[in-house]
């Protein structure tokens, strides 16, 4: 038995005959697309951009040019960007961000409980993203159901990572200054002791005591000179910890987005129209061919 033909004329006739069905299915698809857009919970994405400054530019040797004149780039290198990325991915920085942004109120979870804290950290990891461009600009973004929350988290991430990056270097400098300050205290004690010895030697008189006094005076002068040098170092180090020096430079601050993520309503309706038209047409053609095949068998 030969297979029945189903040429272009048959296709056109079948479509014309079932055009009412095709239109109804297409309208139903459009309606479902509109309902999907209406009930789908809107998500907003906000992003902030910043540059990483070279932390060596605020170093004591660079700031006061104690040695040879050497050019230091304002912008941080790849290593500095890697360190900032590592900080943004650290639990310490994440914890500070979610606490500063009041995640416990936004997502209704107990941040002080182990389960609640783990939930909030998971929400943050799911919606937070860090990227870097080929021009060494970094971008942090956050997705939330509220546009203001998305912008706040992105801006807070920049603020917290700047503080953490700064603290990494400042804390070492503060430790250096304290170490030198402790040494200054020891020198002060030594100066006081040598002053008393000098007074006693000069009061005793005699050639031998005069020679001893000369030695004590020389030692005391060296201690005084060291003390002045150490105090100068402390002042220089403290100058490099001033908050006026930025460790990151914000190029674009995050603002609450005005439109949600995903395709617009018009795009969803166009896609729904195409899908409804395609599948309804395919269905009527298949059914038309099947009917013709059954009629031939009979």
Structural summary, described in words:
The protein is α+β, with helices and mostly antiparallel strands and 298 residues long. It has ten helices and four strands. Helix 2 (19-39) runs antiparallel to helix 10, helix 5 (91-100) crosses helix 8 and helix 8 packs antiparallel against helix 9 (207-239). The longest helix is centred in the middle third of the chain and has 58 residues, at 147-204. It is rod-shaped. The relative contact order is 0.18.
What descriptive keywords fit this protein?
298 residues, 4-stranded antiparallel beta sheet, alpha+beta
What is the strand and helix layout of this fold?
Elements: H1 8-17, H2 19-39, E1 44-52, H3 60-64, H4 78-88, H5 91-100, H6 103-106, H7 114-127, E2 128-132, E3 137-144, H8 147-204, H9 207-239, E4 248-252, H10 265-297
Antiparallel strand pairs: 1-3, 1-4, 2-3
Helix pairs in contact: 2-10, 4-8, 5-8, 8-9
Helix percent reads: 55-70%
Q: Count the E strands.
A: 4
Distance between the termini: 12 Å
The largest sheet is: 4 strands, antiparallel
Mean pLDDT: 85
- Overall body shape: rod-shaped
Pattern of helices and strands: HHEHHHHHEEHHEH
Poorly predicted parts: none
Instruction: Write out the strand line-up for the largest beta sheet, numbering strands in chain order.
Output: 2-3-1-4
Instruction: Find the structural class using helix and strand composition.
Output: alpha+beta
**DSSP helical segment count:** 10
Q: Rg to the nearest angstrom? A: 38 Å
Note the beta-strand portion. Answer: 5-15%
